[in-house]
């Protein structure tokens, strides 16, 4: 016997709920008129009472409000009233994730919660697509006595898309696999309840927001009508936009990057620190900062944890990292700059050479990429379905080139570059292409930058002070990391700050930290959003920032 028929015993053919319920309310072995009941009548009444008890228990268990209808299966569907959702009971029911619904569940009754992504009614039959965290499954409601009533089908198809629903049903494996859903099984619904109804008209249709770039481009080229949701519309309605499978995957991937970063560093004896974000002055001279009033004193938001993480090294923490917000008030209207981003920062003592820092960078990122490719396949597939990309090419041992070698490669390719200026975005891209051609990698380190293009705290090279012990790291020709050995001597720091026009008084607490003995050290800063953007070859950093902040956007 299926679960559905157990809970809804087959009524006698002449059964009539309303008639029986009137009887049931009053009768205790006697009918309304006080006339003794026949055995047959008593048995009928008993059946009815049991049925009502089961119905009441089902409603209590599911928390469902019985719809105002005369449907004997009314307890199997309906809107759950708010008071049932105010943490009223712990029922112990077993929930299954949509993403886990696979052939192994065939024949089993499962219960899951998700959003109604799509619905299609066809008389006595309805198909629903239910989505949970980017995974989708097809659900079928087929009118069947004692299991699914016509009213239940009507109720399900009247629900608005994006409503949150609880579904209970039996898993089956269709002969022809469902193409349009991530899960290839089907669920034959026996119960369906709305937990939270979405408004019938949404500012962004999730199907439109999730449409693959390939499909859009194809339709555009064929001159066929197709909806492309533009970036501003997406960001204005980010809560809806984030529900697409690709976005679900992007932020799960981002979470993995952060977690991997921490795990790797902890295994190498780094400790997590939290530096202040309220600063008395700007941490790097010249760059734009967000100014604010700090109890009557002018202050700003930290544009890097740089100074404090170095001070932590002076305080003998040895190896530190931080994951935290970084604020930049630059008016950069580019695909890769935000006004607030997540910085993954590292600082460490070095024994002999800044290559010790580059060793950490290389090993950390190569093992991170390996881990993402191995453990986030579903996420990468989901991103790929909407935004097709080729897997990142990287070497087991990260390629290192000096800045001078990079310049030479560009010159040999006919690019005109000033050997002592920083590379512009276009030349960084070009060099990325040349490196890929020559070394078959899209991830590499460029080091020994000209001192003049690095911040005042960067250590000059011992053999040629025109250059510095610094590096940038690139993915697909775009910068994701800046790092360097830092100056650990107060006098040299003051000199370098003055040379770059920084008022030393404004950074005196930082410089003082180096007066009481400071170990040689170095570190690097990574932009989390850029790592994810470039690993997946996405074209805009706003795609990898949850609620992006840029010169034009401070909400939602
Ligand atoms: P860029 O030259 O790309 O503007 P930067 O040299 O200013 O970057 P750093 O200050 O060295 O960058 O910051 C270290 C890392 O932080 C960068 O490599 C990048 O990944 C990230 N980053 C820097 N600025 C931004 C920004 N405005 N938005 C997002 N990420 C950023």
TrEMBL record:
GO MF entries: aspartate-tRNA ligase activity; ATP binding; RNA binding
Keyword DNA-binding: no
UniProt main location, coarse: cytoplasm
Residues covered by region (Disordered): 1-51
InterPro entries: Aa-tRNA-synt_II, aa-tRNA-synth_II, aa-tRNA-synth_II/BPL/LPL, Asp-tRNA_synthase_2, Asp/Asn-tRNA-synth_IIb, NA-bd_OB-fold, NA-bd_OB_tRNA
A Pfam family hit: tRNA_anti-codon
UniProt feature, compositional bias: Basic and acidic residues: 32-51
UniProt keyword terms in alphabetical order: Aminoacyl-tRNA synthetase, ATP-binding, Cytoplasm, Ligase, Nucleotide-binding, Protein biosynthesis
SUPFAM superfamilies listed in its UniProt record: Class II aaRS and biotin synthetases (SSF55681), Nucleic acid-binding proteins (SSF50249)
EC number in record: 6.1.1.12
Substrates-to-products reaction catalysed: tRNA(Asp) + L-aspartate + ATP = L-aspartyl-tRNA(Asp) + AMP + diphosphate
Alphabetized Gene3D superfamilies for the sequence: Bira Bifunctional Protein, Domain 2, Nucleic acid-binding proteins
GO cellular component entries: aminoacyl-tRNA synthetase multienzyme complex; cytosol
Localization (cell): Cytoplasm
Residue ranges constituting the Aminoacyl-transfer RNA synthetases class-II family profile domain according to the UniProt record: 251-548
Enzyme class: ligase
GO biological process annotation, one example: aspartyl-tRNA aminoacylation
Database matches in HAMAP family: Asp_tRNA_synth_type2
Family statement drawn from the similarity comment of this UniProt entry: Belongs to the class-II aminoacyl-tRNA synthetase family. Type 2 subfamily.
Protein name in the entry: aspartate--tRNA ligase
